[in-house]
Request: fold
Amino acid sequence: MTALKVAALLSGVYLSIVAPLSFAQDVSAKLMVCGACHGADGNSTMTGSPSLAGQPKIFLENNLIMIREGIREIPVMKGQLDGLSDPQIIALAKFYSSQTLKPEPGKRDDGLYERGQLLSKQALCGTCHLPNYVGREQMPRLAGQREDYLLHSMRQFTSNNAKGRDTIMAASLYGMNDDDLKAIAHYLSQAK
Reply:
């Protein structure tokens, strides 16, 4: 490394210590970290990681704050939001809610899809998440979400392991078996 590169590196370190990052730089830096799992534009391609693009802003704000405060425990998120202010959380939520969801559903299984559609109607999922499942206010968008994540979330609700999340979901899914949950997850991941 040349002396000039070392000097530039050291001055960058010095400036980051002396002059804290601006609000916009902090949010941009956090978006880069979030993008590693949730995708740069909020469209996740990582198994088990939800897409955040197109989620309702209030839903994102609430969940980010609950994660930051330790109310909603997600082991891989532990510490990721520490030190972020409410305005920074709101900026992150605004960014992701304004992104377009670009679902990449797997191959459609017509039988599973139809069963999931019927079960979703019977469970009245559209009452809170809207008939087209795009979510609203504090209710998440389900349409086009990753199938693996939808199934994981519903399994958490049915096993009472969805800490920090709306308990009405456990009641909504009561009596459903794993095959039912798989059908619903398949249907919702395919919904647009």
Remarks:
- Residues 8 and 14 are 10 Å apart (CA to CA).
- The two ends are 52 Å apart (CA to CA).
- DSSP finds nine helices and no strands in the chain.
- The chain has two domains: 20-97, 110-190.
